Amino acid sequence: MIIGPAFGFKEADLNQLSNSEYCVKCDLSGADLGGARLYGPNLSGADLREANLFRAYLGGANLSYADLSGASLDFAALESANLIGADLSNADLLSAFLYKTDLSKAILIGANLSRAILNEANMNGADLSGANLRYGDLKTTNLSSSNMSYTDLTRAELSGADLSGVDLSGANLIGADLSDSNLSYANLQGAVLLNSQLDFTDLTEAKFCNTVMPDGQRIFKDC
């Protein structure tokens, strides 16, 4: 494991992480963990605000209820990690690898997840409002009951995803692949679905109000 210098953190906590990969509720705010190799570390409830985790490996990590707001996780690998209830608001996760990661109830408001790999992840009840998911891979991802209002999903891959009960009001879904997905009871008020793919999509009881459809037609049927 390689860990660089850090500022605004507790040195004892950083040493504990380096020596044992167990650091529950540690203060690692602002820590430079770029390129670190951490195999299944327990960082539950840790303070990682503004931390640098660029290209870090955290596969199988327990980061449940950790504070990662404003952290840099670009190109980080977090497959099968536990991020239940974690705060990732305004975090950078460009091209992050989050395959089968549990992000249920996580806070991702304003996060940058452009080109992130999230297929088969659990994001049930997560708050993704205003997040950037452009070109993201969310195939067969569980997004049920999540808040995706004003989220940018331009050309995102969402085939087979569970979007039941999702708030997609004002979302940008231009060119997104929603084939075989479940959008039952979803709120699509003000959403833009121009050039998106809706083949075999379940739209049972979905709400359409000022919604731009794939062909450019605007629908007001549920206003």
Task: Outline the structure in words.
The protein is largely without helices or strands and 223 residues long. 4% of the residues lie in helices and 2% in strands. It has one helix and two strands; from the N terminus they run αββ. The protein has a two-stranded antiparallel ribbon. The longest helix is centred in the N-terminal third of the chain and has 10 residues. The N and C termini lie far apart (55 Å).
The level of helicity is: under 10%
Major β-sheet profile: 2 strands, antiparallel
Unreliable spans are 1-7
Counting DSSP E segments of at least 2 residues, the number of strands comes to: 2
Mean pLDDT across every amino acid position? 94
By DSSP (H or I, 4+ residues per run), the number of helices equals: 1
CA radius of gyration: 18 Å
Tell me the fraction of residues in β-strands, as a range: under 5%
Coarse structural class: little secondary structure
Strand order of the largest sheet: 1-2
Separation of termini? 55 Å
Cα shape: elongated
The succession of helices and strands, N to C, reads HEE
Question: What is this structure's SSE topology?
Answer:
Layout (H helix, E strand, L loop, with lengths): L10 H10 L190 E2 L5 E2 L4
Antiparallel strand pairs: 1-2
Structure summary:
The chain has 223 residues and is mostly loops. Helices cover 4% and strands 2% of the residues.
